[in-house]
Amino acid sequence: MPRLVQSGCSDLVLDFVLTGQINERGKPELRLEVNAGVRLECQRCLGGVEYPLRFEVLLELAASEAEMLAADDDVDRVLAGRDMNVAVLVEDELILALPMVPRHEQCQAAAGAKGGAEPSAFQALAALKKLNK
Ligand SMILES: [Zn+2]
Q1: What is the mean pLDDT of the chain?
Q2: Which residues are placed with Cβ below 5 angstroms of ligand 1, an ion?
């Protein structure tokens, strides 16, 4: 899953179940249950941080791109095809589920800053600029 790696994921355990069903509107849909764990880089200390990703999504199968564009609701859709790439589908959903800013709940970097006020992002940037000079 190369795009997941590009998103900063360095390790992945993945378990998923993909089933097909007909939804209440009579449309075919895919039900994807994911039980995964990813290792990302903490945005504070740059160490590894593990995240559990457990979710279930319903994806209605659209017969054409026009149908997807015309739909004016918040139903998630994927384009149906004879050959659908399951890895791409699962990767898409994993990427959507990744935290925006991964970091340790109790980060060492934050613990180290205890006792003083936490430096603001601007102060941190200024310090970085000095270092680069
Ligand atoms: Zn951290």
Answers
A1: 88
A2: 42, 44-45, 104, 107
